[in-house]
Amino acid sequence: MQGYNSFTKYKTEFVTDEDFKGRDTSLGVRLHYSEWTFKKFLDRPWLGFGTGSFDHAYGEQVEKYPGGVRPTTNPHNYHVLILIQFGVIGFLVYGAIFVAQLWSVRLMPTSYEYRSLALLLPLFYGLINMYDTYLWGHQLQALFAYMTAIFYRRDMWESMR
Predict the structure, then answer these.
(1) What percent of the chain is predicted at pLDDT more than 70?
(2) How many CB atoms lie within 10 A of CB 45?
(3) pTM summary value
(4) Is the dihedral of CA 68, 74, 77, 83 positive or negative?
(5) Confidence of residue 67 (pLDDT cuts 50, 70, 90)
(6) Most buried one in 19, 80, 99, 147, CB count within 10 A?
(7) Does residue 101 contact residue 138 with C-beta atoms inside 8 Å?
(8) Which of these three, 52, 72, 87, is where a domain ends?
């Protein structure tokens, strides 16, 4: 209910870039970061602004509206972070990771014990990365790599065919 109320407040009280009402909730701030980042991505959609560019680009936003916007180092949405830094081309490479995982699940026999977890891993990370930059931190990045190595190991499930 709190999330719904925060979302409603954000959408009804948000008028212009100078009006920061509705952004005083955690969800409102995250929505602002994601929305602003996506708008900025549209300035350079193909190749983006480069690695680490979000800090600089958003810093200009903070300088433009002092006291209205909280400074941040990431937009709390990994998908739009990839878009602003690497553009559509980088996002396609990033998305290819998840597509390859889902394709591997399609090839796995139904008797493979980790098949359901192999299906859930890319779906779960795709979902949680909409709300924060989980592949940016080394702990969850390592977990993703380890789980990928375990679940998609071909010699584990090819012998079952």
Answers:
(1) 74
(2) 13
(3) 0.78
(4) positive
(5) low
(6) 80
(7) no
(8) 87
> Which residue is it, tokens 């991505």?
41
120-144 tens-digit pLDDT: 999 999 998 888 788 877 888 899 9
pLDDT at 2 over 80: no
- Considering 59, 87, 115, which residue would you say is the last residue of a domain? 87
- What total number of domains does the chain contain? 2
| 6 and 82 belong to one structural domain | yes
Pair 134, 87: CB distance under 8 Å: no
16, 72: one domain: yes
Same domain, 130 and 76: no
Structure tokens at 13: 């009280």
Residue 62 and residue 49 in contact, taking contact as beta carbons nearer than 8 Å: no
- Looking at this protein, which amino acid is placed at residue 152? Y
